Amino acid sequence: MLYADASATTPVRREVLEAMWPYLTGEFGNPSSTHDLGHRAASALASARADVAAAFGARPGEVVFTSGGTEADNLAVKGLALATPRGRHVVTSAIEHEAVGQSVDALARLHGFTVTVLTPQPDGVVTPEALRAALRPDTTLVTIHHANNEVGTVQDVAALAAVAHEAGAPFHTDAVQSAGWLDVSLAGLGVDALSVSGHKIGAPKGVGALLVRAGLPLEPVLHGGGQERGRRSGTENVAFAVGLAAAARALPALRARAGEVAASRDALIDGVLARVPGALLTGPDPRPTAPAAPGTAKAAAPGTAQEPGTARRLPGHASFCFPGTSGEAVLLELERAGVTTSSGSACAAGRDEPSHVLLALGLAPEVAQTSVRLTVDAPFDADAVVAAVVAATTAVGRLGS
């Protein structure tokens, strides 16, 4: 079996399990307790916080442990917007994860915020110029993701954050998809808040973190005992925080594979576009030498509106539409052929409506419903690439006949 759904989740790394095990068994203390068992738990939590901070360019006091990326996004969007007294206007994009999109909707519905939603370019890029035009004196927050989970586009977050700061607005980015591939740093990107999720980088499901710049006001979403310096109440999950820290320490090794994985991805894109009639690549074409269309010097790759290689894409990410087919039926055929993947966001799986991301990129609904996403966290060998291409070709051929 070829597992090609790494954007949905990744397996827990062995070193992560080994680091967690003591705190799932004998070292079970509550870090708020004053006895020795509690002190040891508190010490482990502090060490985990320091390691996560170091991995993501922050200070330990800027790390808030959460139950995952969704909670981190909710805390960032609601917490920053509600704590900022300057106004009630939020800027976001039309292709955010639902954790951000629904949080922004809640601000509008429950708290009277106005929202400006930026339409990206057809390759998924949100431009600094578009953001600059949307900012207002009462803008309380800008929230734009670092990398898109459905089409793999990597935003120039540093440039976007700089534009937001020119207008005095704090900037949050969802880095759930990019953390395992790119140098994701609170300080390096120049953002005010950054969300990460454990299960996308080899830690278990149920843990994540929000990194938020020191001194920035943050209204808590959960109220209770005042843990996490009053920003996220609830007894801390020491074992899972330790697991997230272990995964964070392993990030340099994961990121070192990016070039090799990207080469495999490019071979996959080449094969699918060459062998599947009508296949469309969604999102940016990362290949520096993609074939030009007849009569052009350097044409956009099929299904995109930008020159190949001019925008970054996550190394392990390829996504396609196969017009004239059913995306769900293609997935079933792929699974029969030994390729496990998905149509897009796993968090939206099972819904009948087409992807809001693909619609925002300009695809027709009937085309958007034919999407298939192939994402990996390790290099393909040549046989695996060929197998994936043949499986997709066979599936589309059967369904189209």
From TrEMBL:
Requisite cofactors: pyridoxal 5'-phosphate
UniProt region (Disordered), positions on chain: 280-314
SUPFAM superfamilies membership: PLP-dependent transferases
EC number: 2.8.1.7
Enzyme class: transferase
Catalytic activity: (sulfur carrier)-H + L-cysteine = (sulfur carrier)-SH + L-alanine
GO molecular function: cysteine desulfurase activity; iron-sulfur cluster binding; metal ion binding
Keywords: Iron, Iron-sulfur, Metal-binding, Pyridoxal phosphate, Transferase
Biased composition (Low complexity): 292-305
Stretches assigned to the Aminotransferase class V domain: 3-285
Highest taxon, organism lineage: Bacteria
N-terminal signal peptide: none
Record family assignment: Belongs to the class-V pyridoxal-phosphate-dependent aminotransferase family. NifS/IscS subfamily.
Protein name: cysteine desulfurase
Organism: Xylanimonas ulmi
Organism placement in taxonomy: Bacteria, Bacillati, Actinomycetota, Actinomycetes, Micrococcales
